[in-house]
């Protein structure tokens, strides 16, 4: 039997690592992460660019997944009942909130964005469908961690040793990296029925999310909005509760379409 083809394995590894970098990755970061010579990584990236699976930002030079990869994933995503049932409600939420909307599900202890509606204005935006986001630093991820037992492994795969203590990856100076503090936040999510985070994934941005449940009452995903902190954070450092109500209404509507009694 023929053996594995190393170049294909390396190309797949590059695609996987690009899927984790929402803002793209530089050649040096890709080379270092995969322990590949820069020349080898560059050759694979150029080939993937040629076939449309990777694109390069002309200003920053960073690489990200291209439209060809997203179109390949569309057959899976279109078959996803959650995404299919949520399309109209996600559009409605974007219109009501004036913010971008994402629907995410659990995928290997990360959030897989299965649907993304752009903020309804003329600003330049990047499609996030197919992107993998961290559970602990996003509102959608915290909803999944709070209500989906499969989202919290016995030993968090993202946790690392730092100075003798276990911490979670930090994306900004606001990211909650303590498992104990995160667990308290998750208790609040369970009590409130929704989650939010302030500048924990991206400086200057806030996200709010609520759970989507299927006909069995199982949390199968979450829907949320993301936008500028000055728009989504209300008085006294709390979230804009009108936006919270919009998100929860959308989550309830999708859950009803999936056969859930309103909650």
Structural summary, described in words:
The chain has 263 residues and is an alpha+beta fold. 41% of the residues lie in helices and 20% in strands. The protein is built from 9 helices and 10 strands. The protein has a 6-stranded antiparallel β-sheet with strand order 5-4-3-10-9-8, sandwiched between helices. A two-stranded antiparallel sheet has the order 1-2. The radius of gyration is 19 Å and the shape is globular. The N and C termini lie far apart (56 Å). The mean pLDDT is 86. Keywords: DNA-binding, Transcription, Transcription regulation.
Write the layout of secondary structure elements.
Elements: H1 6-20, H2 27-34, H3 38-50, E1 54-56, E2 63-65, H4 67-78, H5 81-97, E3 100-107, E4 110-117, E5 132-133, H6 139-147, E6 160-162, E7 165-167, H7 179-192, E8 195-198, E9 205-213, E10 219-228, H8 229-232, H9 241-257
Antiparallel strand pairs: 1-2, 3-4, 3-10, 4-5, 6-7, 8-9, 9-10
Helix pairs in contact: 1-3, 2-3, 5-9, 6-7
Domain HTH iclR-type: 5-67
Keywords: DNA-binding, Transcription, Transcription regulation
Protein name: IclR family transcriptional regulator
Bin the helical content: 40-55%
Low-confidence stretches: none
Largest sheet: 6 strands, antiparallel
- N-to-C SSE string, H for helix and E for strand: HHHEEHHEEEHEEHEEEHH
Pairing-aware structural class of the strands and helices? alpha+beta
Mean pLDDT, rounded to whole units?
86
Sum up the overall morphology in one term: globular
Strand order of the largest sheet: 5-4-3-10-9-8
Number of strands: 10
Euclidean distance between termini CA atoms: 56 Å
| Number of helices, where a helix is a run of at least 4 consecutive DSSP H or I residues | 9
Strand content: 15-25%
Our Rg estimate from Cα atoms comes to 19 Å
Domain HTH iclR-type: 5-67
Domain IclR-ED: 68-260
InterPro entries: GAF-like_dom_sf, HTH_MetabolicPath_Reg, Tscrpt_reg_IclR_C, Tscrpt_reg_IclR_N, WH-like_DNA-bd_sf, WH_DNA-bd_sf
Keywords: DNA-binding, Transcription, Transcription regulation
């Amino acid at each position: 039997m023929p053996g594995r083809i190393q170049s294909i394995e390396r190309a797949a590894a590059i695609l996987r690592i690009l899927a984790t970098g929402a803002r793209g990755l530089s050649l040096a970061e890709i080379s270092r992460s995969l322990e590949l010579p820069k020349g080898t990584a560059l050759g694979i990236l150029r080939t993937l660019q040629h076939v449309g699976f990777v694109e390069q930002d002309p200003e920053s030079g960073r690489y990200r997944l291209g439209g060809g990869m997203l179109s390949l994933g569309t057959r899976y995503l279109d078959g996803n009942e959650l995404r299919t049932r949520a399309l109209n409600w996600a559009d409605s939420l974007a219109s009501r909130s004036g913010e971008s909307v994402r629907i995410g599900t659990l995928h290997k202890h990360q959030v897989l964005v299965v649907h993304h509606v752009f903020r309804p204005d003329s600003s330049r935006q990047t499609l996030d469908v197919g992107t993998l986001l961290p559970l602990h630093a996003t509102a959608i991820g915290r909803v999944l961690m709070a209500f989906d037992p499969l989202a919290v492994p016995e030993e968090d795969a993202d946790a690392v040793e730092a100075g003798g203590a276990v911490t979670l990856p930090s994306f900004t100076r606001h990211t909650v990296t303590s498992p104990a503090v995160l667990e308290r936040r998750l208790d609040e999510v369970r009590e409130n029925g929704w989650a939010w985070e302030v500048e924990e994934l991206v400086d200057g941005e806030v996200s709010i999310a609520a759970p989507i449940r299927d006909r069995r009452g199982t949390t199968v995903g979450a829907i949320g909005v993301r936008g500028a902190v000055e728009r989504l954070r209300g008085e006294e450092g709390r979230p804009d509760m009108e936006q919270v109500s919009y998100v929860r209404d959308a989550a309830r509507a999708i859950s009803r379409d999936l056969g859930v009694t309103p909650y």
